[in-house]
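go over this chain:
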Amino acid sequence: MAYTALEQMRKTNRERYNTDVGPFEPSLYGAGRLGSDLKSAALRFLHERCEGLRFSPEKAKQEEQTGTYLGTSYRPNQIPYNMQMDVDRLCLERELEQFIDSGVAEDAYTVYYSFLEMFMGAYGRSSKMIELLSEFESNASSLLMKHRDHYSHSVYVFALGLAIYETNESFRKTFQRFYGFRPSEDENRAAAFFLEYWGLTSLFHDIGYPFEIPFEQVLAYFEVDRKARGEGSMYLAYRDLDCLNNLGEEAKTHFTELFGRSFENVEQLLAYGIEKRLGAAYDVSEEYLYDTICKKPTDPNRFGYFMDHAYFSATRLYQELVERCGANALTEAHVDVLTAIMLHNSLFKFAIAFYKSDTKRRAPLKVELHPLAYLLMLCDELQCWDRTAYGRNSRTELHPMDAEFDFARGMIHALYCFDAEESEKIGAYEASYRAWEQNGAVGKPPRLKAYSDMAEKEQRFRTDIEKIVDLSGYPLFITTFMRTADRRSKHTYLSGSSFLHMYDFAVALNARYRYEGQEETVSAETLERDFDSLSLEYKLYNINQVKSFSKYLNAIGCFYTDRPVDFEMLRAFNEEQIAVFAPMEHARWVLSHRAMGWTAGDLYENAAVPEGTNRYCLREQMRQHKLCMNGDFGELEIARHYLQLSEEDQGKDWKPFNSMLKLIRKFDGLRIYKLG
């Protein structure tokens, strides 16, 4: 039983009404329970290994004593608290499933959203930390020589880590021993612990890129007529870093109590944490690490004229953790998260292991020294597929467009897929490689990054990973293949705005009923307060409706943008347009509710209502809705279902959009235009 609080509510309802009305535990998708692929393994981890995630025995006892539920669904106090925690976990499972299927940034957004809501409180307070990474990359990175996406990349890294934990017993046991969990006795607690701290490590390891991008832009400008960066290059350096490096008095006291010594700033804390984990194995002192870390933002010329985004990711995440959780809530595991992030980019490779040096090279990192750093570096290297290329050189290179993984028997089989439309480029490379071999293999072999690193005999891609992390207990096999790209799976439409709008868009969408006719007077603060009162599930319903809006507009020959364009603005939808997208919205609503375990029924409207509750609470406790559909159904059945609805119920799929148009114009600067 994976979702035990849902099952307990089902038992309660069965006793109340002498019939099985639900809620019913949602099943793991398809072959997920047995599969060893990335999707199956990652989702199985969330579905089965994380049972009881974030449950509170204290709140359950309080509910039993008072007779009042403490969990939030559409409104507060509608369901048991632990049931809300089960639904939250299901939300994360479903959003990760959707992202793995699509790989698009909008679906990565809702994985971030779910994680932040579950482990760091309300998303709105941390939103800029995540959204700005995507905005900087999509708007500024095309000016760089080399740069690829790090937003969707980080969610793929997150999924890879979950899959490895789920399928590799050696890693799982090592991680559990490292953090003091008893094997087999603390499986659920260890999995919950791993999910939280691995999520922090993987999802936020690249949030410092907005600090690296301006540095690279300046160098890229001067590299146009130069062959390499180096002495004589103009570069940026950072000063006055106290806003990121400051510990704060409360934190200083806390870390003194935690570690038995004092720290003046985050850099000292990072140096101490790394030396504690790796110092003896690599003969590196805290003083050496501290000096190296301090120089990363201020003296990039000491590091080959490269800025290390890992420094900014670690220090930025530290400040976010303190603000959201409080300094006194930070643990030694949080410090491990920060040091893993600090190590992952260049610090370990070039200042500790010297992995490219023939004379100074040291052993690759063993998992038992720092499991989070080990897993981050492994997954960061493996995740090289399906990444948007922004940089000028990156766009001409040949990177994998897809990947298939098999994690069976503790091994990692990675099959990287290249676009068959690039076969001419691949053929030319292979011909030049054969010529190089026939001429005695003198000098450096020809390369076609990243294809050659995987396909050449030297297997540069795999051997580089072997130099970074110890693979003796984690056999890695790399294969390449080609197929024709199907870009329709990305569902890319003309509509577009920044991710800074998506949250605000959803807030306005949520207000579509309550403030109809009051759009000119309602305040943004009021709308956001209403939105924050929802559970994660209902927030995501709004956000996913926002994500579908571009599809609806595309179907009626319209698009939205936050930029002024020379097209006719749409101020309200007409009947012809409504007839196109209203059934599409109904289909989205039906399918999303089925995925979350809702069933069709109206018992909540007719059954006896327990004292102290109401029919809306019953609906949420049964997870039953009269507009849902049961059984197996497809698009045709949903279309027929829509036509059978009353005029009032059909109106629920389109009327709110006209109110929403006024709200997003007022608060978000978005406009909808007609193509024709």
